[in-house]
């Protein structure tokens, strides 16, 4: 598959670039995508949740009433879990939710996600992405020229320039990522992907 290369004014440069079939034209594996997205979201969890259990509560340890003969449930002190304000039984404790996936499976998932985007014609290519000065207005004008304004868009570049990052940071739905940091989740979590020409060459080579 070949895509036309545009400039930041939204004009076709007349040149084309090929998408590697081994990256953008494979048989997608949905289960690999599912596992990789699950791992990514699990790794984002802090896992710092904690509730106090009975031994961690402060309160009197006096036995409230006798063990038998009252007709009610037996309980010990005021920290009992069956009393209001008491401890929680088997409450959440700090833990890590991360888990391991094989490198080849993660690579397969990334290629599968890129293939879906290519099949849906949701990939565009820019000759370069740079501005003389950081201006949000310049970035918005470029997005309008490319017909991607108002859509959740991922810009993939070889190196993130300060002028580009500062121009885009206040625009909702816009993300910028380096080609080497491209992952399955960020590919799926956007409507359009805009590659720079050198970033796409890196992706074709690395993936």
UniProtKB/TrEMBL annotation:
It comes from Porphyromonas asaccharolytica (strain ATCC 25260 / DSM 20707 / BCRC 10618 / CCUG 7834 / JCM 6326 / LMG 13178 / VPI 4198 / B440). One of its GO terms (cellular component) is ribonucleoprotein complex. The keyword Magnesium does not apply. Transmembrane segments: none annotated. InterPro entries: Ribosomal_uL4, Ribosomal_uL4-like, Ribosomal_uL4_dom_sf. The keyword Ribosomal protein applies. Residues 44-77 are annotated as: Disordered. It holds the Pfam family Ribosomal_L4. Belongs to the universal ribosomal protein uL4 family. Part of the 50S ribosomal subunit. GO terms for molecular function: rRNA binding; structural constituent of ribosome. SUPFAM superfamilies: Ribosomal protein L4. This is Large ribosomal subunit protein uL4. Keywords: Ribonucleoprotein, Ribosomal protein, RNA-binding, rRNA-binding. Forms part of the polypeptide exit tunnel. One of the primary rRNA binding proteins, this protein initially binds near the 5'-end of the 23S rRNA. It is important during the early stages of 50S assembly. It makes multiple contacts with different domains of the 23S rRNA in the assembled 50S subunit and ribosome. One of its GO terms (biological process) is translation. The gene is rplD.
């Amino acid at each position: 598959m070949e895509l036309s290369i545009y400039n930041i004014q939204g004009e076709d440069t007349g040149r084309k670039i090929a998408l590697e079939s081994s990256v953008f034209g494979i048989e997608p594996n949905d289960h690999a995508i599912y596992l990789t997205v699950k791992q990514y979201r699990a790794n984002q969890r802090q896992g710092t949740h904690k509730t106090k259990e009975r031994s961690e509560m402060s309160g009197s340890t006096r036995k409230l009433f006798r063990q038998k003969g009252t007709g009610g449930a037996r309980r010990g002190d005021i920290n009992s879990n069956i009393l209001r304000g008491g401890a929680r039984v088997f409450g959440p404790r700090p833990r890590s939710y991360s888990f391991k996936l094989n490198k080849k499976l993660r690579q397969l998932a990334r290629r599968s996600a890129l293939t879906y985007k290519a099949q849906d014609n949701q990939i565009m290519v820019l000759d370069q992405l740079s501005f003389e000065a950081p201006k949000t207005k310049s970035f918005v004008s470029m997005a309008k020229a490319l017909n991607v304004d108002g859509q959740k868009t991922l810009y993939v570049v070889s190196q993130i320039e300060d002028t580009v990052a500062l121009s885009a940071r206040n625009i909702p739905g816009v993300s910028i990522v380096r080609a080497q940091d491209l992952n399955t989740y960020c590919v799926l979590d956007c409507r359009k992907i805009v590659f720079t020409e050198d970033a796409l060459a890196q992706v074709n080579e690395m993936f």
